[in-house]
Design brief:
It comes from Mionectes macconnelli (McConnell's flycatcher). This is RN213 ligase. One of its GO terms (biological process) is ubiquitin-dependent protein catabolic process. Keywords: Ligase. InterPro entries: RNF213 (IPR031248). The structure is a single chain. By secondary structure, the protein is mainly α. It has a domain of 32 residues. 52% of the residues lie in helices and 0% in strands. It contains 4 helices and no strands. The longest helix is centred in the C-terminal third of the chain and has 20 residues. It is elongated. The relative contact order is 0.13.
Length: 80
């Protein structure tokens, strides 16, 4: 949710890192963003769960990758 929220606000996601147990927004705002970005017109709860699970795994892997660390790559891969 935090990444999608910042993406919609056109924030620099390269400088953002998720902080465990931090809470932002309301449950309604979270659901609205998931519905907007999941790519399915009328998703089931299972489809929303799969979308959020996959997105979470990808973002966690991205944060763990040295190639996505702005301190390591500097500006060579900006926006990648």
């Amino acid at each position: 949710f935090q990444y999608l929220k910042r993406f919609d606000q056109r924030c620099d996601l390269d400088a953002f890192w998720y902080e465990a147990h931090s809470v932002e927004g309301s449950p309604a705002e979270c659901l609205q963003l998931f519905l907007l970005h999941c790519g399915i017109g009328d998703p089931s709860w299972a489809e929303l769960r799969n979308f959020t699970w996959f997105l979470n795994v990808q973002l966690r892997d991205c944060e763990a990758s040295v190639f996505c660390n702005p301190d390591f790559v500097r500006d060579t891969l900006r926006g990648f």
